[in-house]
Amino acid sequence: MQQKIFFANIKRIENICYTVAMPYSIEFQISGLVVIAVLCIVFFSKPRWKSLQNSIFRILLPFTFFELLMDIISVITVAERDHIPGWVNDLFAKGYIITMFVWITGVVIYIFSNFVYADIPERRLKLIKAACLFVIIPAAARCVLTIFTPLKYANYGREIYSYGIPSIGTYIFSVYCVVVSIVGWLMNFRHLSFKRKIPMFAFTIMEGSVALLQMYSKNLLVIGFGTAVCILIMYMTMENPDMDMIAKLNEANRQVNNLLLNILPASIVAELKERPSTFTEKYDDVTVAFMDIVDFTKMSSVVGSEKLVNILNSLFSEFDMLLDKYKIEKIKTIGDAYMIASGLPERYENNCEEMLKFLIQAQRTITDFNGRHNTTLRMRIGVNCGSVVAGIIGKKKFIYDLWGSTVNFASRMESFGVPGRIQVSQDVYDRMNGRYKFERREPIEIKGFGVCLCYLLEPGRKV
Questions:
Q1: Which residues neighbour 102 within 8 Å (Cβ) at sequence distance 6 or greater?
Q2: What are phi and psi for residue 286, nearest 5 degrees?
Q3: Which residue from 242, 109, 280, 125 is spatially nearest to 180, judged by alpha carbons?
Q4: Which domains does the chain have, with CATH numbers?
Q5: Using CB atoms within 10 A as the burial measure, which of 205, 274, 297, 411 is most buried?
Q6: How far lies 378's CA from each of 115, 363, 425, 444, in Å?
């Protein structure tokens, strides 16, 4: 009973279409064409997320417009076949069938693209690629068969329809693709979100409904409208976030990343992103240096704190730019002191010599700075080398820092140093003697370390 009512309703729809003044049965195709035209405007009017699905849909959407256009033209040429050359009629009629094969193939590939998810096993990915070939190869064969086999036509005006091997091949291929899509969907069911299951449902229901309608009434040409509805459902269920919002988020992430890189070494930033927790690491061969402005407190009372801080910022900024030329890491500034280290976080040999090269150039920078700013800044510089522990500790306001006696003694080398000179420890002297000239100082009593030998780097630099 319900089946009879269903087919009676279909017949009523068909009769309504016949009463329209249009001489060709293209109402559904035109409706579908309008839907796809609007969808093209909406889709291409703004940036889209560069996903596999969007890349395929970007091609599939305009091709659907072309497929509907071919459908409309083929209906008109078949209806007017007695008034136009036969090859023109065959060109558009067979061209539409070939276009339909290609469209179905594109839809199935789009459905398969929804089966690709994050961390998909390589074996499953290969199966999906193989499934695509199982659709593409039959489609190509059907296209060749359509070209070389005759297509027959029946009736005129609104009563026209085509039959023969090409037409039958379209239905067979549609059924084949529906089966392949369902098999792929069942194999990947557990791994798919609800939205990624919808394209398969849309294609299956559309193809099944259209096949049923066309089988019952060959004159009711609704395939075009079915394709438009299928594409519309696919568009509405796409995983397509707002690209404007993504662009703003990317810009915000870039700014945050740049801020982190100004605070922490690049390798430490990368490690924190992978493992967001505090950590420390021991380094056996590191060179540490402290640079401190002489009489900074007295200068503050003379020129004013604000002006002196501006001068300090300009000088330290020049040191920061100078660091870009060397494999040396800025650790921190403490008031008017500038702390740096070489040999970390990336370990490398000859880090002690790299440090001395930088410090010699830093002294030249100070001299040049004084000349340009009419100042008389002088710095004490202390250097030591050895083992340290480096890393980040605590819960808030992370800072990459160093700990150990090597760091403490480098600080003592600066505080017991000579203004305008670079003072080094015995360990630095033992490594660099023979490459650089040093002046030995009288033994110095250093709190916590006893009597120590210290050396001043000669201005002449290398031996």
A1: 63, 67, 139, 143
A2: -135, 145
A3: 109
A4: 2-241 (1.20.1070), 278-462 (3.30.70.1230)
A5: 411
A6: 68, 9, 21, 22
CB 75 within 8 A of CB 26: yes
pLDDT at 12: 52
Structure tokens that stand for 188 in this block: 């990947």
Q: Residue 318 has which token pair?
A: 């020049």
- Note if the pTM is more than 0.70: no
Q: What is the pLDDT of residue 128?
A: 85
Q: What type of residue is 359? A: L
How much is the pLDDT for 4?
55
Could you tell me the CA-to-CA distances from 85 to 75, 147, 250 in Å, in that order? 15, 17, 58
Which region holds residue 157: left if phi is over 0, alpha if psi is between -120 and 50, else beta?
left
User: Can you give the pLDDT at residue 182?
Assistant: 83
- Which residues have a Cβ under 8 Å from the Cβ of 91 and sit 6 or more positions away? none
* Long-range contacts, 203-212 (Cβ 8 Å, 24+): 203/107, 203/108, 203/111, 203/177, 203/178, 203/230, 204/178, 206/230, 207/174, 207/175, 207/177, 207/178, 208/178, 211/171, 211/174, 211/175
- pLDDT computed for residue 80 by the predictor: 82
**Tell me, what's the pLDDT at 445?**
84
**Per-residue confidence (pLDDT) for residue 66, from 0 to 100:** 93
pLDDT (0 to 100) of residue 254: 78
Which residues fall within 8 angstroms of residue 439, CB to CB, at 6 or more apart?
A: 455, 456, 457, 458
Own/partner long-range contacts of 309-314 (Cβ < 8 Å, ≥24 apart): 311/373, 311/375, 311/377, 312/336, 314/369, 314/373
